[in-house]
Amino acid sequence: MHVKDSPLHDQWALILGASSGFGEATALELARAGMHIFGVHLDRRATVKNVERIVSRIQASGRKAQFFNVNAADPERRAEVISQIEARLLQEGGPAVLRVFMHSLAFGTLKTFIGESARDMMSAAQLNMTLEVMANSLVYWTQDLVSHSLLGDGSRIFAMTSAGDFKVIPSYGGISGAKAALEAYIRQLAVELAHRGVTANAIRAGVTDTPALQKIPGSAQLLEGALRRNPHRRLTRPEDVAQAIMALAGPGTHWITGNVIGVDGGEDVVA
Known about the structure:
Layout: E1 12-16, H1 21-32, E2 36-41, H2 48-60, E3 65-69, H3 75-92, E4 100-103, H4 124-147, E5 156-162, H5 173-192, E6 199-205, H6 211-214, H7 219-229, H8 238-249, E7 260-263
Helix pairs in contact: 1-8, 3-4, 4-5
């Protein structure tokens, strides 16, 4: 299909966590399908070159890209970004709402709940920060986007979850709790936004070798176990998830909402 014939042509996506992993892959995949991309990321000077590469690839495909290097969990920065998105869509004179809003923030504390000393254990501040960034921010962004009429009929919300929502992984307890909350929020948003024609789904990716996964203690064992279990004899790739989101963003998916959708090649159905 030629990009101009794509049902996503000239529509806009907003991706939180657009500079690596699932967010990066989805930004590039949606751009190939004809979409323009707003990206929110938090990168230091050492990693910002990768963001420049992503933006260049989007623009090379003839699509528009506007990225914001800010803390997505900061209320003031969120307000600024949404204000600029609103102004850009008005200036473009195209669709007034976002077709895709993707939440792919991977920033939390990796610590055990119980340890030999207080220093070894998850603190209240760390637990609250993890929940705030990786789950609560989905609600705050959605509230503000709806308030500014940037989500409406045909909009699709996607939030990234993981098998850690139901499996115990060392030092993953805080993130596991945040993922469980994220999935609960998706169900609630699906119901509350139904009358607006907005869908909301969580995407549970299989174990994927991303920068976020590499920070988990014992990540090598997680990768080895997933490779052994997966019926396809390979790991999930960010591109697998990106292609699934592109398909779910298309027409005919208005009745798919409130779900946790596995994109793992069958990995989690194998004991």
